[in-house]
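Listing S7. Sequence submitted for prediction.
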Amino acid sequence: MKRCLSMFFRPGLTILMALFLFIQADDAAAVAKSHQYGDVEMGQFSKDNMVRPVTFRHWTHRDKYTCRLCHVDIEFSQIPGETGILEEDNRDGRYCGVCHNGKDTFAVKECSKCHPKDKIHQKESIRQAKNAFFKFRKTMPPSMYGNKIDWMKAEAEGKINPIDSLPSVSFDQGTMVINRRDEPRTPKLPGLPDIIFSHSKHVVWNGCGMCHPESFAIETGKTEMTMKEIIGGKFCGRCHGTVAFPINDCSRCHSKPVSLK
């Protein structure tokens, strides 16, 4: 407990938390419960096809696959609703159909596995998913925010071993040059601990293509960004706050102690 309190009441982090709370004050009700963190409703064409939307739960996939595999190789957009998945896509082995083929996991033709049949079935599916999540979380290293699972630590300790390629969709990454260095960043607000950006941790999950060049310039330090933009879902906020640990877990990024003179 003392360790947790000291982390939050370091001078720099206190300023950062106050800033975060100020920006987020009007959006407090939107904070997801831990078992719903990372959930995405997929229902772009559901109404036209008279089926109930699918609730995609990131946590049920994150222990099996890297983010890069789905968002780069399989081509799921990181922006909800932008992929435009049709039933025929899945049945032809694209998107969800890459893995949901009846061999690797249940086939897409088992519709009620994803599309609730009615309100009663939907309520029961939510209950079962909630119970399954908390059972799974007990086996994982804890974290303070989001779904309260430290996924990086789980991967580093071998508790999960996410697959990063599939023969049917992935390209050979053996010849790629990958940056694995840690890079410090100095916050614009004086007194905050420096940011230590770890390429090695992001490479495990994201590779290079999920971040460069669309969100971040390849050249170090060339991307100008603000905390307000990040909290608004840009740059780091594309993942942190939606699926990866949220922005209010300040010390995960602002991790280099302030040098007091």
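Caption to Listing S7: primary sequence and predicted structure tokens for the chain studied. The radius of gyration is 20 Å. Strands lie at 39-42, 54-57, 182-185, 194-198, 254-256.
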